[in-house]
Amino acid sequence: MQQRNLGKHGPQVSALGLGCMGMSGMYGAADRGESIATIHAALDAGITLLDTGDFYGMGHNEMLIGDALVGRPRDSYQLSVKFGAQRGPAGDWLGYDARPAAVKTALAYTLQRLRTDHIDIYRPARLDPKVPIEDTVGAIADLVKAGYVRHLGLSEVGAETIRRANAVHPVADLQIEYSLVSRGIEPAILPACRELGIAVTAYGVLSRGLISGHWTAGHAADAKDFRTHSPRFQGDNLTHNLSLVDTLRQLAKAKACSVAQLAIAWVLARGGDIVPLVGARTRERLTEALGALDVKLGADDLAALERTFPPGVAAGDRYNIHGMASLDSER
Q1: Which of residues 26 and 7 earns the better pLDDT score?
Q2: Residue 223 pLDDT more than 90?
Q3: 55 and which of 22, 85, 114, 261 could share a cystine (Cβ 3.0–4.6 Å)?
């Protein structure tokens, strides 16, 4: 497995990470046995970075990962955890809480659910508009000093917030959406990260399956699949976006790889400081994603992709109106 560093302050991790969110209902029903088998297969293939959030399935995802890791040496993997999202018993979203006391309480429960004594990268899922980022980062810095957290990460914040946070404690990486159809980080956020020596862990590299080559206009999504509320998966937006995938399919055929592999390879090619998170829920999809590591893109390939997927090419926002409003990275 190829390795990359999470910035100048973070650990060395596998070039691909496994995003585990989809194993806990966010994309509809998931099979527990297959989820655990997929985590095992990822670890066996050399993937070391496992990403989760304490609010994925209201703790279900952390407990699932904790079960899957039983018997695995703690130094053979890294756990990246997001916190702060507040949810009701019906699964509704209630905002964010990143007050220092809430940070430390959230970590205490996370350690129990994951059956571990430390988290490798700990990060607020979003900027809490009621709490200065310096206060949130200061609380994580306390946890680093106490040994419960190894490194500080951020998620979906803009360049100014990144600078303010890094001034309090070194930031290892920024987790943010980045793909052929989500390139909003390129003007300001990515340059700020590179100036400060902060890596990017890119989620949504297949735009939640939209550019995977497996989604079709007649795809029947589970009623609990949050993509049913995503602007990019609706109406004329979906028609437009799938036409882009048709072009991507032609380019992938020329490279003798799958659509998903080409899309992941593009993110890998954007720089050694970027680690794509693949949201594979099955061993089949994981195997496909791992194949992206063998796809080499030359200057002509990258130019062809740039012509087809210039910034802003996708139709529809990447979240619904409420989700977009919560993103400091979009301000």
Answers
A1: 7
A2: no
A3: 85
Is the pLDDT at 291 greater than 70? The verdict is yes
The mean pLDDT of 112-138, rounded to a whole number, is: 98
Q: pTM for the whole thing?
A: 0.96
The pLDDT assigned to 27 comes to 85
Could you tell me the residue range of the domain that residue 28 belongs to?
A: 3-330
Q: How many domains are contained in the chain?
A: 1
CATH number at residue 316: 3.20.20.100
% the chain with pLDDT above 90: 93
Q: The tokens of 171 are what?
A: 């930031």
Lowest mean pLDDT among 65-74, 83-92, 213-222, 304-313: 213-222
From residue 86, alpha-carbon distances to 44, 125, 138, 311 in Å are 34, 10, 21, 32
Active site residues: 56
* Mean pLDDT across 173-189: 98
3-state secondary structure the chain: CCEEECCCCCCEEECCEEECHHHHCEEECCCHHHHHHHHHHHHHCCCCEEEEECCCCCCHHHHHHHHHCCCCCHHHCEEEEEECEEECCCCCEEEECCCHHHHHHHHHHHHHHHCCCCEEEEEECCCCCCCCHHHHHHHHHHHHHHCCEEEEEEECCCHHHHHHHHHHCCEEEEEEECECCECCCCCCHHHHHHHHCCEEEEECCCCCCCCCCCCCCCCCCCCCEHHHHCHHHCHHHHHHHHHHHHHHHHHHHHCCCCHHHHHHHHHHCCCCCEEEEECCCCHHHHHHHHHHHHCCCCHHHHHHHHHHCCCCCCCCCCCCHHHHHCCHHHC
Handedness of CA 54, 60, 64, 66 (dihedral sign): positive
Report phi then psi at 154, rounded to 5. Answer: -125, 165
